[in-house]
Write a structure and sequence with these properties.
Rossmann fold; Cobalt-precorrin-4 Transmethylase, domain 1; multifunctional enzyme; 4pyrrol_Mease; alpha/beta; oxidoreductase; 5-stranded parallel β-sheet; 4 domains; S-adenosyl-L-methionine
């Protein structure tokens, strides 16, 4: 049967739902969501419908259907489960030139509701030729493809440009969020860091501009001010600019600085959090940063600054980022400030990569045991490190006796 796809604006318009069961409930809620003035006609209703009626979002006519119930309606849904009643409603709707959604009888319906999903400002509506299961499967596949970026929506309208600060996670592209992938698929420009999941760059369209602003330890070839200016300049050209970072933009990622620079320039900014390596890489090594009865809190710091004021208890986990080259001086500073040199300590290198390596020792011996450790790496100090003992002997794990 040939149909004409159409979207309806129902806000403030009367829509009648005849029936109070499962189908009627789902349709009534969907109609309320569209802003319709929903009237339910039924002697009894489901508990869910009763709750909505009690909140005043739906008007209930607590009785059987009467022929005059369609007066003033723009649309009707009948789903009583009683064929004679549903046929009567459909006949009345036909006589009044009102479109009728007829539950369980698409052949006699004059309107069909597609399977619908909404992804940001995009509405997906799929008709399955009368097969609701097929329509739902197609809808879900399309929605997932849009969310993950497998079906990109390039060239969305951003008259003043857009900058998206996207956290790429701890390195494994599988840990990049669905929202992050979606924005990458829409990007005109991608500005990325050394620790960002660079394998996803191969998925970009050929016309996407890719700019490497990665910093090496103690070597920043492109100052932060220039990166800020680059984001603003590209966005002012009306482009979608993705700033792809490792971990989370707001955990030692200078995301706050870039956000302020863009907002001061009047540029629209979206922040997409990422999985921070401070927690994820520790977890990859079998170390939870908190654990009942072992650690009640944790601090995340860089290894470049004074550490003497940090909590000195083994039940407070310390996670240090970007400090592997200063590991010996950091350990000495912590011990001098009162930290127990016997505190379990781990250095995890290249988290989530095939050559991830964990070195487990004590605070007093970790510098010797991990003297050959290289960036990227995190250091975890605290009693929770002892929970990784079960991984001893695994590939990539070194532990003192």
């Amino acid at each position: 049967m040939s149909i004409f796809p159409l979207g309806l604006r129902l806000e403030g318009r009367r829509v009648v739902v005849v029936g109070g069961g499962h189908v009627a409930t789902r349709r009534a809620f969907a109609l309320v969501e569209s802003g319709a003035d929903v009237h339910v006609v039924s002697p009894a209703v489901s508990d869910s419908l009763a709750s909505a009626i009690g909140r005043g979002t739906i008007t209930w006519h607590e009785r059987a259907y009467h022929c005059g119930d369609l007066d003033g309606a723009w649309l009707v849904q009948t789903a009583t489960g009683v064929p004679a009643v549903d046929d009567l409603v459909a006949d009345d709707a036909e006589a009044r030139q009102i479109f009728c959604l007829k539950g369980g009888d698409p052949e006699r319906a004059t309107a069909w509701t597609p399977a619908v999903a909404r992804v940001d400002d995009v509405t997906i509506a799929v008709s399955g030729g009368g097969d609701a299961g097929r329509a739902s499967a197609l809808r879900d596949a399309l929605a997932t493809a849009l969310q993950t970026g497998d079906l990109p929506l390039r060239h969305r309208t951003h008259p003043r440009g857009l900058v998206a600060l996207v956290g790429g996670g701890p390195g494994d592209p599988g840990l990049l969020t669905a929202r992050g992938r979606r924005l990458l698929a829409e990007a005109d420009v991608v500005v990325f860091d050394r620790l960002a999941p660079q394998s996803v760059l191969a998925e970009l369209a050929a016309d996407v501009e890719v700019i490497d602003v990665g910093k090496q330890p103690d070597h920043h070839p492109i100052p932060q001010e220039q990166i800020n200016a680059l984001l603003v300049d590209r966005a002012r050209e009306g482009k979608v600019v993705v700033r792809l970072k490792g971990g989370d933009p707001y955990v030692f990622g200078r995301g706050g600085e870039e956000l302020l620079a863009c907002r001061e320039a009047g540029i629209e900014v979206e922040v997409v959090p990422g999985v921070t390596s401070a927690i994820a890489v520790a977890a990859a090594a079998g170390i939870p940063v908190t654990h009942r009865g072992v650690a009640r809190g944790f601090s995340v710091v860089t290894g470049h600054e004074s550490l003497g004021e940090l909590p000195r208890r083994g039940d407070h986990t310390l996670v240090m980022l970007m400090g592997v080259k200063r590991l010996r001086s950091t350990a000495d500073e912590l011990i001098a400030a009162g930290h127990d040199p016997e505190t379990p300590t781990a250095v995890i290198e290249r988290g989530f990569s095939p050559d991830q390596r964990t070195t487990i020792a004590t605070l007093g011996t970790i510098a010797d045991r991990a003297s050959d450790a290289v960036s990227p790496a995190i250091t975890v100090i605290g009693d929770v490190v002892s929970l990784a003992a079960a991984t001893t002997g695994s590939v990539g794990v070194r532990q003192t006796s």
